Amino acid sequence: MTVLKTDKMTMKFGGITAVSKFDMEIEKNEIIGLIGPNGAGKTTCFNMITGVYTPTEGKIYFEDKNITGMKTHEITKLGIARTFQNIRLFKELSVLDNVLIANHMRLDSNLFSAIIKTPDYRNKERKILEKSIKLIKDVGLDDVINEKSSSLPYGKQRRLEIARALATDPKLLILDEPAAGMNPQESMKLMEFITEIRDRFNITILMIEHHMQVVMGVCERIYVLDYGIMIAEGTPTEIQNNPKVIEAYLGVE
Ligand SMILES: Nc1ncnc2c1ncn2[C@@H]1O[C@H](COP(=O)(O)OP(=O)(O)OP(=O)(O)O)[C@@H](O)[C@H]1O
């Protein structure tokens, strides 16, 4: 089953074409990498898929539904969640509170029931607490559940960010440079972790990553962008041996 499909997805900023007629198709449960030199258009793709930008041309389909131009919160509700290149946590709050807040965004209640704390509201709150604790266990942060998020090592902060994204019950999880700032040991653990959450949550994963060992180690297929144009698509081995890819990377070094 196709989870995400882009059809000639294009984004122009004035005279700059950041992404040009990009066709991508992702099947359920795949782990897909999106790579390319700096400024290649990767983040712009994520911003179009998650509704931050409306493509200037082309279409985006999520589970066969045309989501082109839909608002970010509508897209989240349909089942696409993302993390960001720069970690966005509530730094002063605990691990648990960070996940609780992400879960609360899904709490479907009105102001009246929240103020009065009706039995129905209390019941929903209890369920959210249970779900948050389970999620924290699932991402392996139960030993730091009450720690302030800013006190965690980088690798754990990334896990927490992923837990927050998972709180929205996504079908497609989009990760923007999950290995950024990690030491080699943390990167290795991250690779296992990404495969683990794909299996445990039965989701599909699309990630931007500059860390080649991570990309090649965890992704089943990879798309390569250069100056907004897709120059290659294939398995890690195919991509590593593709002359266009080698040239694009060597050309910027
Ligand atoms: N809001 C914007 N307004 C104008 N130009 C933009 C905007 N966002 C991105 N661009 C331009 O679009 C091009 C692609 O940028 P983008 O951030 O998508 O690349 P990237 O592949 O994610 O790069 P990096 O790996 O450095 O994060 C760049 O030339 C960038 O300057």
Automatic annotation (TrEMBL):
Coiled coil: none annotated. Keywords: ATP-binding, Nucleotide-binding, Transport. InterPro entries: AAA+_ATPase, ABC_AA/LPS_Transport, ABC_transporter-like_ATP-bd, BCA_ABC_TP_C, P-loop_NTPase. Residues 4-252 form the ABC transporter domain. SMART domains: AAA. It comes from the Bacteria. This is Amino acid/amide ABC transporter ATP-binding protein 1, HAAT family. The lineage of its organism: Bacteria, Bacillati, Bacillota, Clostridia, Peptostreptococcales.
